[in-house]
Amino acid sequence: MRETLFNWLGQSLAGLSCLDLFAGSGALGFEAASRGAARVVMVEQDRAAFEVLKKTRDTIGAQQVQLVLDDAFNYLKKTEESFDVVFIDPPFGQNALPAVFRYLRAQRGTRVYVESSEPVAAGDAWRELKRARAGQVSTQLLEWRGDDQGDLPGNV
User: How far is 77 from 59, CA to CA, in rounded Å?
Assistant: First the structure.
């Protein structure tokens, strides 16, 4: 799945800011960093997983990776930042995606990669760029195309 995602995004993420919600192992965020992302924020609420993320970041010297120990929804509610690329891979069965899309800040061109059990209908302001399925996992790449507020960034 990761290879497909980065084929969709392009091999270089040079200069982009990325958000890895529900970071877990951090595979997507660390891959983005290795492809030149200027900044990668990884949000993870599990303390043990967070400690592993810290160790991995320090071992590979990924200076552009910022780790946040917090619940993804709390983080989204607090941040005023929008990102170029967002990775969303919540635990299946949590029904987290509607809330994520409610609180996610986007700007024109923000791309969001989603892994879930079923395809997501994110809303009219989003355009689906790609979709695939592997076994029980649905993947999509969506792009924020704006809204009826003059394309002002804001919660979607």
Answer: 31
